[in-house]
Each structure stands twice: as C-alpha cells, then as structure tokens.
Amino acid sequence: MCSEGAGPRRGLRPAKSSNTSAVSECPNPRPSARLLTRLTKTADVYLKTRARAREAAYEALLGAGRSEWRAGERVRFYRAATGAPVWLPDALETAGATAPPESAAWPPYDVPHYLGVLRTSYVSRLRKAFAPDQYEQLFRSSGQIGLFDRYCLARG
What we know:
Blueprint: H1 12-25, E1 35-38, H2 43-49, H3 56-63, E2 74-79, E3 85-87, H4 111-122, H5 132-139, H6 151-154
Antiparallel strand pairs: 1-2, 2-3
Helix pairs in contact: 1-4
C-alpha cells in the first residue's frame, strides 16, 4: 500500500517530467544528447566495412567532409532530427570542417529518439523498484496524471 509519505518516490515524477521537458523544448543539441566515443578503426578500415554496417561516429565524420581520422581519436556527435549523425568538432578542429561553428547553426536533434533513450536507458532501470501499476503511474509515456492514480504517486 502506498502512503502519502512515499519518501524518494515523491520526486520521481517531477524529475522525469523536467527531463522530458528539457529534451523536448530545446531545438539545439544539448550536452546530454552529445555522445563522446573513441574511434577503433582508421578511415581505410571503416570504408572497407561500411557496406555491411554503418556506425554513427564514422558517418558523422564523413557527413562533415572528413575523410581521414586515426584509431583512438575521440569524437563527439549527436543524432539530428533527420536521423543523420552530426559531428561536433572541438573548437580547435573547426578550421577546415564543413560544420557550422555556432551551436545555433547546428541541425535540431532527434527529440523522439532522445526521449526514447531517456525512457529505455534511465527510467526502465526503475521498473524493478515498483509494482507494475505503480511503475505505469509514475512513468507512463503520456505524462498525464490519471484520475484514479494513488494519491502519493499522483502528487509526485
């Protein structure tokens, strides 16, 4: 049974709601949407395997006009609303790159994709902590509070 003094549960709905709003309302790539990865393949190796499997980090580099890189290089990128990966060069790397230097000029990021990442990567980890009906109340994808939700969960 759930009581009004639900401890840490009280902050879960507002935290999820504020994170969902932050992802949904900002068109520019947010720091949390940017991935940093270390490349394991040289350009020659990747281009030979590209027909079998495309990898976002390398595709971001190719999309920005880079045709050479080294294994071990660290690369930042994000997924644009078109689904294409977009390379985010470090400030020192912007010379010679075809990517826009200002963050306002970057293509908008893929909001539905990142909302899905929020749900599957973070929220789903809490599934074992709650009974199925409580989990659904707290984390339903619509975000709507139900008319018959338990008091302590409905209040967040």
